[in-house]
Amino acid sequence: MKKVKTGDSSDRSPPSGDQAVLPTDKQKKLTSQDQGADEAQPNSVISRLKELETRLADDLPIDTQRINDMKNAIANGEYQVDAESIADKMIDFESSLKK
């Protein structure tokens, strides 16, 4: 039998037989309730995410014409990246983090 080290200097074996601690009916009931809560949680999370998605879609104006124009420009190889502008914005952002 494996010895279990405790806080004091003596070694003790884990309880066995009549000494073993078994879960009470109350503990078993709590465990089964907890499992049910875990199973229900993903559904509530999914419904909450769907609600948030709907609210965001209603609140944010989306310029679909601009998005389609950019997609077409990228697909046709006509989209030009302004590297200097991007670099300036990255530097500004980095500087704002240090403040």
Q: How many extended strands?
A: 2
Whole-Å distance between the termini?
60 Å
Measured as a percent range, the helix fraction is: 55-70%
Name the poorly predicted regions: none
Spatially, the strands of the biggest sheet line up as: 1-2
Q: Give the overall shape.
A: flat
- Order of helix and strand elements from N to C terminus: EEHHH
Strand percentage lies at under 5%
Radius of gyration: 30 Å
The chain-level structural class is: mainly alpha
What's the average pLDDT? 75
**Annotation field: number of helices:** 3
Q: For the report, how would you describe the main beta sheet?
A: 2 strands, antiparallel
Notes on the protein architecture:
- It is a single chain.
- With 99 residues, the chain is mainly α.
- It has a domain at 24-79.
- Helix content is 65%, strand content 4%.
- It has three helices and two strands, in the order ββααα.
- The chain has helices at 25-59, 64-76, 83-98, and strands at residues 4-5, 11-12.
- The protein has a two-stranded antiparallel ribbon with strand order 1-2.
- The chain is flat and about 70 Å long.
- The mean pLDDT is 75.
Question: Can you describe this structure in just a few lines?
Answer:
By secondary structure, the protein is mostly helical. The protein has helices at 25-59, 64-76, 83-98; strands at 4-5, 11-12. The chain is built from three helices and two strands.
Task: Name the features.
2 strands; 99 residues; mainly alpha; two-stranded antiparallel ribbon; flat; 3 helices
Give the arrangement of secondary structure elements.
Elements: E1 4-5, E2 11-12, H1 25-59, H2 64-76, H3 83-98
Antiparallel strand pairs: 1-2
